[in-house]
Each structure stands twice: as structure tokens, then as C-alpha cells.
Predict the structure of C-1-tetrahydrofolate synthase, cytoplasmic.
Amino acid sequence: MAKLIDGKAISQQVLDEVQQNLKAIQEEHPHFKPTLAIVQVGNRSDSNVYIGQTRAEVGMDTRLIKLSEQTTEAELTAQIDALNNDKEVDGIIVQLPLESVHPIDADSVIDRIDQSKDVDGLTRENAGRLMRGELEKTIFPCTPYGCLHLVQQATGDAQYVKGKTVVVVGRSKIVGSPAAALFMWHHGTATICHSRTTNLREQCLQADILIVAIGQKELIKGDARWQKKTKRDVHFEQARQVAGYITPVPGGVGPMTVAMLMKNTFQQAVASKLKNASSSQWNIAKTVLNPLVPVPSDIDVSRAYKPKHIEKLAKEIGLHSDELEMYGKTKAKVLLKTLNRLANRKNGKYVVVVGITPTPLGEGKSTTTIDWCKRCPTFGIKGGAAGGGYSQVIPMEEFNLHLTGDIHAITAAHNLMAAAIDARMFHESTQTDEALFNRLVPHNKEGKRILSKIQQRRLARLNIAMVEDANQLSAEDRKRFSRLNIDANTITWTRVIDTNDRFLRKMRSGTVQLRKDISELLNSQSQLVVN
């Protein structure tokens, strides 16, 4: 009589271990929480049971993305792409079958999942790694992984599979084929059989471990030993008489599938949010330097080397593609949201290079900063120069003339504010209180003057009682509300331009004769200041 393998108890041990490890990590990293995303198309009842099981109380987050039967393949892959790019999501599973009125290629959908988030272990990349025996780089499929764990726990021997004859009945991509590969790479001698195997009985009788996942009712009778079963596959009572160990249904492999899913998700969360985030090691492929004598001009040196694609460089230093804002092929900004992913990483050193007098060859702040950059994870703010010789930032032209265009944008915004101040001072000097008020708060179709939210806040700052209709304001309140009364002698907003042109430093705007002869007023607050 075979001993029953209690899948529920063993799976609970796995979940308890995951929960304990998670709590230990959260003591040091309180914000760490693994997240599993479950994508379901349609509303199969058996699928819902499986989804309900995955919400185990182990301290993880689960997201159920439930799509209707009208979902197209394009819509489904777009959803998976969004989850791939969501750094909070550590694992993704797609419930099969996909119940849609539109044709959907399930293999293409599964393969769309990022390999590092494929906690079901079903993508081509994970399947290929498993078949090649690259176990350290593989996320194991949950059901075969659960079968292996059951064998090890039931026998009390982590090496039990070694040297054993393992027969897998069923060649599915989800259970049969990966189970054979997994047991083979744990040093078992694995054979795959299926419904068309002519000597199935003889193969099963030779097995030390029999894994049955073929979906054919009571295909395996009592003269075959086995490890994994469902009621449709194995005649339970007959097989129990000859097997050493047997898993019941329910309560056998099913709970293990869920437990291993949680374990996979936890391990991937640790890898992506802790191990990868805590590593400060860069793996930069350096450009081969071929210095010439005599050293060419700076611009010739810059043009002699092809800059590395910025996405490749980002990958080498551990940045993700969605953490970049691209500016062509050689420049990018790092988005601030990256700090959230790297919150657990130890801070680097902040180095500021200042006050160095250049040598005759030009080695000054820029050259020193670039040299320090080779040694430090980060370096501080530097000036506008790009270095020189073979210690410079390339491409030199873009670095010096434009870069990402931020300075130009700041200049435009700054000067727009200066123009707004000029315009306001001009209008206040040329118009009556009532005319200004009419411009700021015109009548609507009903004859009312409705204040905007920002205008309501101005009333509050002026300690003027709030009104629903600005017509109710007194003449004095209208005057106080309408006029900023900027004193050009004490409040100035200077225009700027980001270029080093000494001849522009004395330029003054507002010298042309303006209406009402207020040019002198504007001149006093509109001086153009140049870096």
C-alpha cells in the first residue's frame, strides 16, 4: 500500500518558508513587497479557482487583470507589455486557455512576457534554458517544479532523483516536456511517453518515478508505479496497491503548483528589487583608444570615435530602457522615477571638482572630472566645457552647442516671464482701474463676473471677502485686486541668453519709443544679462 504524499502540507511548508524570508527582508527593507500579475481572458470557473488559490496569505501583492471575451491579441499583448515595463510587477502569468471570440496565438502571447517575470517558466527563453541545463538562469515551470519538490520531501532525500529511471507520460509544453528535462538535469534517466507510445505499460513498469499528465481517463492501471496523478489519468485504487508513494487528487500536485508559483515570484522580486538594485558594479565595454602623436585637435579627436548607443551604455550601467528619455542615439536623460527602484542601493560618493588652474596642455576641471568619472559611480556638476584631447565628452559639438536643449527652454521660459512683467507694467501705467478690472474679469453671457480659482486665491491673500460675482466688489477692492504695482526700482526680472558673447552684455531692451513714453520705466527693469 502506497504512502500518501500530502501535497497540502508540503505546499504549506513552502509558503511558510517564503513568508518567513519575506518578513526577514522587510525588517531591513520595509517597502519591499513582491507583486504577481495574473492576466485572464474570459471567465472559466476552473481558472478562477486557480486564481483564488494564488492569493495566498504570504504577504505578496497580486493584481488580477481580467479581460473580456472581446479582447484581441493586440490588446492582450499591449497589456503584457505594460506589465513588463511596470517595475513594481515581479511576476506575470497568463491563464490558459484564452477564451476570446477573436483568434489569439497563445504561444506568442506567453512568449511576450519578459523572461525575468515569467514565473510560470513557459516562455521560449526559459524553456530553452531548461532544456540546455542552464538551471541557475532558469525559472522552473511550477507544476514540474512542484513534482520534483514532492519527490524530495516525500523521500527525505534531496538527491533521490539521481540515478533513478523517470518516466513522464505526456509531452505538453506546460508539464510533460519540462518535467522530463527538469528530472533529467537532476540526474535522473528520463523517458517521455504519450498516448501513442506502443509499449506504454512496459515503460511504466520500469519507472522508479512515474509522472502522469496526459489527460486521458484512467490510462494508467494498477500494474504501473507513478508519482503524479489526476483522476482522469490514473486508476487511483489500483495504482495505490503497487506504488511506494502516491499523490491524491485533490491535495497532491495542485497545491504545489500554487506554492512554487509564489516561490518563483518571491525569488524574482529579490533578484530584481534587491540583488540587482544593490549591485553598483558596472559592466562597461570600453571604446578602444588609438592615440596619435602629435595629438590632433580636440574636434578631430571627438569626430574620430563613434559614440556608443546610449541605450547600450544605459544597460551596461544597470539602467532600464523605460527609465530613459531619449534625445537621439547618443544622449538621454535618466528619469527621476529610477530613484524608486534604486532606493535600496547604497549611495555613492558625490565629487565636485573646482578651482583648478589649467596646465599649458589644458588639463583643468573638465579633464579631472572626466578622469574621476572612471573611478566613481557618480560625479558632480561640471562646467560647460567638454574636456580636451583624449579626455573629453563626445560628441563635442552637441555637448557644447545644444545637449538636450534644457538651457534653451529655461532661457525661453525666463524671458517669457520678463515679457509678462513688462506687459503688466505697461498696461497698469496706461489704463484706468476699471479698464484693468474689465480685462481681468470680463462679464459672462449672464452679465456676471466669475472669478477663476487663481483669482479667488488672490482675493484671499489680499484679505478681501470672497464673492460669487466680482460685480459685488467695491471700487477700492477692484483696484487692489487689479494692480500689482510693481516698483521697477526695487523689483527686477532680468532677461538672459545662454551664450558667451561679451558684446551683448551691455544690451538693454525697451529703448525704442513706446506708447505713453514709458520706455524709461521699462529700461530700468529690462536689462539683458548674458552669461
The longest strand covers residues 35-41.
